[in-house]
Design brief:
Helices cover about 85% and strands about 0% of the residues. It is an all-alpha fold. The chain has two domains: about 60 residues; about 40 residues, no CATH class.
């Protein structure tokens, strides 16, 4: 239920400004060069809604969240930090895959 609320909230926050501006543009505002810039900016804000959906769905899943955090820690770890056996195995697999592709 939380996931649905986040998706709906994101959709409303991202798309409501352009819908509201379109109504004002139709009845109260004269079109000009500035209004087209505003419309484009608000349209791009709406598109952010679509880009955020996969992240919201993904991070609601505990298994995915755990694995994503593991991979991010593996990628951005400090040089001095010791690796666990599991991290070392993943690193070796990635290194082998890069050599195979090259």
């Amino acid at each position: 239920m939380l996931s649905l609320g986040l998706i709906l909230g994101t959709f409303l926050i991202c798309w409501l400004p352009i819908f509201t501006f379109d109504i004002f543009l139709a009845y109260f505002i004269e079109p000009s060069k500035t209004t087209y810039v505003i419309i484009n900016a608000l349209y791009w804000l709406g598109l952010v809604s679509y880009c955020s959906d996969p992240f919201i769905y993904a991070f609601q899943n505990k298994g995915f969240r755990h694995e994503a955090i593991f991979i991010l820690k593996l990628l951005f770890r400090c040089k001095n930090e010791k690796r666990s056996v599991e991290q070392e195995e993943v690193h070796n697999l990635w290194a082998e895959e890069r050599r195979r592709i090259s």
